[in-house]
Design goal:
The protein is an alpha+beta fold and 264 residues long. 33% of the residues lie in helices and 25% in strands. The chain has helices spanning 12-20, 34-39, 75-80, 82-87, 89-96, 101-106, 109-115, 122-128, 142-145, 212-220, 245-263; strands spanning 5-7, 26-28, 47-50, 60-63, 66-70, 132-135, 139-141, 146-148, 151-152, 160-166, 170-177, 184-193, 196-202, 209-210. The chain has a five-stranded antiparallel sheet with strand order 4-5-10-6-7.
Length: 264
């Protein structure tokens, strides 16, 4: 690693002020992506601003049909939360599938979505459940938050504070995981929400996306059979040593069908 300053603010305002004073600084949440890049010398921030002491980023609440999770809540706490498991079991199931126990106990919701790794699980939940991302400056709808590979609508120095998930009528998440990293080769969140059917896919493309043809089919007939003849074009999907774009296209159908079958 390169040398850097270390700062540990206690409030969101202090964290933003620390970033404003040093534009080459980086926020540190769970560190599951940032720390490895520092070790590999792929990043060289002048300062790390540790968000672990920010109480405003902690806590899980359920009220008025909405589950609100602080950005600093780790995946393991979401997975075992009785409130989350009762209100949105699919969200708890998704959190339980992130990485391994070490990653789940260090990685955070806010860090995951702010990084927007194309193979991360949480983007599928945010988009699939039509969540709202609350930052230190504004509220951002799920549809506007994720803008591209490792890119979001966040501005420099803007912090994710919490995410609110409307409780769906029913939902399920199915994932084909990389056996080594546990990242999603393809992950699919299927949800029947107050606003209609939503099918959100992570791992397959450069960024999380929805599948309108599947949503329309499930709106007409919520059954696994409704997806039988729907194919997702592989043209814009990822291809790497783990899976071709054609295989990922096939997996979208498989994972979506499994998700529907588990709750239909």
């Amino acid at each position: 690693m390169y040398a850097f300053d270390y700062k540990r603010p206690k409030t969101v305002a202090e964290a933003e002020a620390a970033f404003a004073a040093d534009s080459d600084a980086a926020f540190l949440a769970g560190g599951q992506t940032l720390i490895p890049t520092l070790k590999q010398r792929l990043r060289q921030p002048s300062a790390l601003i540790d968000l672990a002491a920010l109480d405003a980023l902690k806590g899980i609440t359920v009220a008025d049909g909405i589950v609100t999770i602080g950005a600093g809540v780790c995946h393991a706490d979401v997975a075992v939360s009785a409130d989350v498991r009762k209100a949105i079991p699919a969200l708890a199931d998704l959190a339980a599938q992130v990485g391994d126990p070490q990653v789940r106990n260090r990685g955070t919701l806010g860090g995951s979505i702010a990084n927007n790794d194309p193979a991360a699980d949480y983007p599928a939940a945010v988009v699939g459940l039509d969540a709202t991302v609350h930052t230190s400056r504004r509220e951002i709808a799920a549809a506007a938050f994720f803008t591209g590979m490792f890119e979001t609508a966040l501005e420099p120095g803007e912090l994710v504070v919490k995410v609110s998930f409307p409780i769906p009528r029913r939902a399920a998440y199915q994932k084909f995981r990389n056996p080594a990293s546990r990242y999603a080769v393809v992950g699919v969140m299927v949800a029947e929400t107050a606003g209609g059917m939503r099918v959100a896919v992570t791992g397959a493309g450069p960024c999380v996306f929805r599948v309108p043809t599947m949503e329309a089919a499930l709106a007409m007939n919520f059954s696994a059979g409704a997806l039988q003849n729907i194919q997702v074009p592989p043209d814009d999907l990822n291809a790497d040593l783990h899976a071709t774009s054609e295989y990922r296209a096939h997996l979208i159908g498989v994972m979506a069908t499994r998700a529907v079958a588990s709750i239909a």
